[in-house]
Amino acid sequence: MFDRLLFERAPLDVPCxxxxxxxxxxxxxxxxxxxxxxxxxxxxxxxxxxxxFLLAVDSHAEEIAACGDQExxxxxRATGLRMRREGLHDIGLAxxxxxxxxxxxxxxxxxxxxxxxxxxxxxxxxMIAEMATGEGKTLTAVLPAAAAALSGMxxxxxxxxxxxxSRDCEAMRPVYEALGLSVGTVVEGMDHAQRQEIxxxxxxxxxxxxxxxDYLRDRICLGGDTDGLHLLLENLYGGASLTHKLLLRGLHxxxxxxxxxxxxxxxxxxxxxxxxxPDGSAAWxxxxxxxxxxxxLGNDFxxxxxxxxxxxxxxxxxxxxxxxxxxxxxxxxxxxxEEVILQALAALxxxxxxxxxxxxxxxVQIIDVGTGRVMPDxxxxxxxxxxxxxxxxxxxxxxxxxTLGSISYQRFFSRYLRLAGMTGTAKxxxxxxxxxxxxxxxxxxxxxxxxxRVFSTRIYSTATEKWRQIAxxxxxxxxxxxPVLLGTRTVAASERAAAELATCGxxxxxxxxxxxxxxxxVVASAGQxxxxxxxxxxxxxxxxxxxxxxxxxxxxxxxxxxxCHEAARIDRQxxxxxARQGDAGCVEAFLSLEDTLLEPMRGGLAERLMLRLAGxxxxxxxxxxxxxxxxxxxxxxxxxxxxxxxxxxxxxxxDMLSFSGQRE
Length: 664
What we know:
With 664 residues, the protein is an alpha/beta fold. It has a seven-stranded parallel beta sheet with strand order 3-4-2-5-13-1-14. The longest helix has 43 residues, at 618-660.
């Protein structure tokens, strides 16, 4: 019954189906729909419902274990046909999960735990399964992916980078193929024909960026004609039709790994496909930087760090007019020059090397602030990228870009007929996931009880003192042969940490956005006895850290947070690298009142009070921790407002383009 309330099913004869966005100006419709979905999901997550499903899966175990491989494949095909008629209901899912679990045991030697069965069941029902780090999410995703594919539903398994997509696909391939399913990975560098062939398979592993851009390419190919009737008529042309040129078969079912990273962190900026529009931009770019450098902070412009932007003062507008009075061309246009100068001021004052971008081989490459990874194929728009290139002295500036198509992650993923995901940290953004994507979050218990020890947070007045204490602590732990993972927020912080540890004569592995190609190998070795690893933010997310021999008896992996992230769940992700699957592990944080998180709150009585309290007594430490958490909550709220603004802007643009008959 609840599947009819929660999901749309695509008729098999409709090409490229997707969910139509539900939007109503009537508040009663909105809250009524929300209430129905919430009641349905609450029913699905009741403890007795979970227990009944696990019992149903186990009821097939003995019978299936006695079957041969060929018989299992035949039963899987028959179960899939039943689910195609009836939907992904518990009766069919229970048998499908039992078949998948037995196949996994035979092909991989890994048998799904009850907790993994629960996680797979929640995802099959269109929810976010919150599973702790190390609980085997890769193996869990096989359950809903294979079950849905058996029912004839094309499945996209989405993750954050090509390495993880390829790794997970190849690791799980034996299970899929034993069930008679085809699977492949779409990665950067593939041509159109290769991508199309992979998307035609039952299950396609890919990154969120690759998938969304391929969707945009299809929309550009179709122009504004994306209604079902037009696409059905297109099929009359046979191989010459537009539908035969498309990459995707529609948006049926997506399972999003690291769902908070993809659906929340990545949602702060829209996806844009652009083409080169060379126009001799180097001249105005360098002129804009020269003019911006002539403006004085405080007198001509101010920096609003809380909002992440700059603004001209009244005097600044006059000063800019004077500077441009003898210039010609576009510099005579008041609005254009003011927007350009604001971008130039932002490039000079808000975007910092080794924090927001790297300079590699004479080019500027953006760093994803949420993950610490480099995004070499992305550029900032509205001339900002060219301004930063000129600021860094790049000999050749990239061409300006002309937008061909754009969409936000919020609108893209909301178009899937069925959407699910898994992550270790979703409860902090459960409200936003429900409001934007219609996704409920359900926690899955750990297979073994956690043995993680959390030490008291230490807060120092200055960053210098903080780093000195971190170096002393790492030296102390290293002397006991305890492995240490030191988490940093930026590339610059990683290099400072490296310098401090080198001064102490310590040998370490440094992992930052500058070494992203070695990410998984470095992180995987972090649990060996005596290892010291410096990692930017959540570098290596998705890679298991296994403890070396004798490390568990020493207390396990020791994670040190050197700075709070803007989102508390990112800190929780880093902490989750220790004490995985019942291992021992420890976590502690070393913070300072000069950390970036507190930068928007600089000055004033509150800061002076906190400086007096730093490092003096237990209750004072609690007060300082509370202030840090307050700053974090403010940052989280501002980021949520940014994402809401992106979605609102995207919807408005979509409405305008639809009204004018143009494409997205």
